[in-house]
């Protein structure tokens, strides 16, 4: 524990009351198996003690704020409408356990929150900075009546098992306490467990983190954590109390940096002590030192090898790459194959075989005049995003080069922009698709017709879009697709009689017919039990709305930029008709064509 000196500083604060939390407890003298209270006490001058007090409160505050943000984030992500975004990083599990995660983070946050007011209250009560209340024995305490003592015993008796368990584990003399006789054994075990988890964390960062400086920073902190134990014991071995305080404080600081600061830095651009029984064994102590030191050295060697390997295997068009420790191939995470820049018509299989199949997450083919989708795309089981841009697709037969559930279990987005389909709709997208796939979007295509059996081939998704194409009509079956948003924006549809053929008990969350030369809607919408939640008709040529748009469109008809809004007075508009712009809070799942044009420009490699 920490306390003020008992000599010259006694007038500032008494020594018996200023005890610190477990993190600042020091270890017993090496030659004492049963150390006294003084053997585990580190006396500080008033200025240093105040600094230690402020650091403890700041650590509680930092961890508490971080845990509260995590709890709030997980709780927010339990909203059903956020399920689409959750699947971007958890395509297999979704947000099914996020409520539990939020509860766990909130409980740990409450522990930190309960500690800070106690420290402040006790310091105010004692008129000085303290960690624990000083025990006073006054006449009032001595003259407690028997009945009051009995009531107190009954009240506290209910919680006594919990208190005993807590003290047995977390008090200074408990199993995890700094004054426990087995402190070194527990500390070494905890240190190895911590290093194991942090090593796995660093390995995962090397696979998925493309930022070189942040990856290097994480490895550096892990090395410091490995070697700090050795340094502290080497330089402070003759001062056991100071050695224990510095070892645990440094360990806590590095853990906070790796578990709090590094994750926060990821989000920002886009929310050794010794036990007296064991220390007598010099050989065993040396083994621990050597193992921890070698551990840090091995990690540094792996990291340096990965950095060198990433330079040797760099591939043109790789826009984000990682540096995994155990691979000899190019560990490209995001690959754009620009056929124009390479002077080829289509990439071949050999090129894709040079890429680590476990690393590639996004793959894009751009500016290919004769694109044959290579069968090698089925090697990439971790593929999450697949794009084709400004290419003529001459071969996508759907046999060995299709998007399939078995080959791409993590794929969640497929987008095709500005393509030319001389052979019609690609068969490569008509195979059994991955259950993780949430979005299929076509934009600026020359497809004039769609297959009739898409609802039978495609599972429920968040978005299916055929935007800015040549469609003049659609199959009636298309409206039975189980999707959150079905977008036919910017085509050449003038009438849509297929709305009358919609099945009973069918509900479409959102149907977009924006920017079509739509002249009229049919007189009825399927059956009376057929509903559309949001109907987007902005930029169409509609002058009137049939009656069903008021009874079977449950939420909103978006009519901005139509002759209807230009002729009907605002006060006469139906309650569910909106002539103004859509709210920025509306979930906008339109295809970002302008952004795609920019990132896949022909002169960009």
Describe the protein in words:
Mean pLDDT is 77; it is low at 5-38, 137-152 and 272-280. It is globular, with a radius of gyration of 33 Å. Helix 15 (548-551) links the parallel strand 14 and strand 15 (553-558). The chain folds into four domains: 41-133; 180-312; 317-437, no CATH class; 455-604, Leucine-rich repeat, LRR (right-handed beta-alpha superhelix) (Alpha-Beta Horseshoe). The longest helix is centred in the first third of the chain and has 32 residues, at 46-77. The relative contact order is 0.06. Helix content is 39%, strand content 12%. It is built from 17 helices and 16 strands. The chain is of the alpha/beta class. Strands 3-4-5-7-9-10-11-12-13-14-15-16 form a twelve-stranded mixed sheet. Strands 1-2 form a two-stranded parallel ribbon. A two-stranded parallel ribbon has the order 6-8.
What labels describe this entry?
605 residues, alpha/beta, 4 domains, 12-stranded mixed beta sheet, two-stranded parallel sheet, 16 strands, 12% strand, globular
The residue-averaged pLDDT reads 77
Distance between the termini: 60 Å
CATH class of the largest domain: Alpha Beta
Helical stretch tally = 17
Q: What is the overall shape?
A: globular
Give the structural class: alpha/beta
State the share of residues found in helices, binned by percent: 25-40%
InterPro entries: LRR_dom_sf
Keywords: Membrane, Transmembrane, Transmembrane helix
Transmembrane segments: 51-77, 97-114, 212-233, 245-267, 287-308
């Amino acid at each position: 524990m920490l306390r003020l000196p008992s000599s010259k500083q006694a007038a500032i604060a008494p020594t018996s009351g200023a005890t610190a939390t477990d993190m600042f407890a020091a270890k017993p003298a090496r030659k004492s198996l049963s150390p006294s209270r003084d053997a585990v006490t580190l006396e500080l001058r008033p200025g240093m003690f105040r600094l230690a007090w402020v650091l403890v409160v700041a650590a509680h505050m930092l961890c508490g704020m971080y845990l509260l943000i995590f709890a709030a984030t997980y709780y927010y992500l339990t909203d059903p409408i956020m399920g689409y975004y959750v699947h971007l990083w958890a395509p297999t599990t979704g947000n099914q356990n996020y409520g539990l995660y939020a509860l766990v983070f909130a409980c740990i946050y409450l522990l930190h929150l309960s500690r800070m007011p106690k420290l402040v209250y006790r310091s105010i009560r004692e008129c000085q900075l303290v960690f624990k209340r000083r025990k006073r024995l006054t006449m009032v305490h001595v003259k407690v009546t028997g009945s009051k003592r009995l009531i107190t015993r009954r009240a506290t008796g209910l919680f006594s098992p919990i208190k005993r368990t807590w003290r047995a584990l977390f008090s200074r003399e408990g199993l995890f306490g700094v004054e426990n006789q087995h402190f070194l054994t527990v500390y070494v075990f905890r240190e190895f467990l911590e290093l194991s988890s942090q090593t796995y964390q660093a390995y995962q960062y090397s696979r998925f983190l493309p930022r070189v400086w942040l990856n290097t920073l994480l490895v550096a902190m892990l090395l410091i954590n490995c070697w700090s134990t050795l340094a502290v014991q080497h330089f402070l071995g003759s001062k056991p109390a100071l050695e224990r305080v510095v070892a645990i404080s440094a360990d806590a600081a590095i853990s906070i940096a790796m578990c709090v600061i590094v994750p926060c830095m990821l989000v920002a651009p886009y929310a050794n002590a010794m036990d007296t029984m064991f220390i007598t064994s010099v050989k065993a102590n040396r083994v621990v030192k050597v193992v921890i030191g070698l551990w840090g050295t091995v990690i540094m060697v792996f990291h340096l090898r990965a950095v060198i390997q990433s330079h040797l295997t760099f591939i043109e068009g790789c826009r984000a790459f990682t540096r995994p420790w155990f691979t000899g191939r190019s560990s490209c995470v995001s690959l754009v194959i620009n056929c124009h820049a390479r002077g080829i018509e289509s990439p071949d299989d050999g090129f894709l075989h040079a890429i680590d199949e476990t690393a590639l997450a996004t793959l894009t083919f751009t500016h290919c005049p004769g694109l044959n989708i290579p069968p090698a795309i089925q090697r990439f089981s971790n593929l999450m995003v697949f794009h084709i841009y400004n290419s003529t697709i001459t071969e996508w037969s759907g046999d060995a080069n299709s998007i399939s559930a078995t080959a791409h279990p993590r794929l969640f987005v497929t987008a095709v922009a500005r393509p030319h389909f001389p052979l019609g709709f690609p068969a490569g997208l008509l195979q059994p698709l991955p259950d993780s796939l949430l979005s299929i979007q076509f934009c600026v295509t020359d497809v004039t017709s769609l297959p009739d059996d898409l609802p039978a081939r495609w599972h429920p998704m968040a978005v299916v879009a055929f935007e800015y194409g040549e469609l003049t009509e659609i199959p009636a079956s298309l409206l039975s697709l189980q999707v959150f948003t079905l977008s036919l924006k910017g085509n050449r549809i003038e009438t849509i009689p297929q709305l009358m053929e919609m099945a009973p008990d069918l509900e479409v969350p959102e149907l977009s017919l924006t920017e079509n030369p739509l002249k009229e809607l049919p007189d009825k919408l399927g059956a009376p039990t057929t509903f559309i939640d949001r109907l987007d008709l902005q930029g169409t040529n509609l002058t009137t709305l049939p009656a069903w748009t008021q009874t079977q469109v449950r939420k909103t008809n978006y009519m901005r930029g139509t002759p209807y809004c230009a002729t009907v007075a605002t006060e006469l508009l139906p309650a569910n008709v909106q002539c103004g712009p859509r709210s920025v809070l509306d979930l906008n799942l339109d295809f970002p064509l302008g952004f795609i044009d920019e990132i896949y420009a022909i002169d960009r490699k």
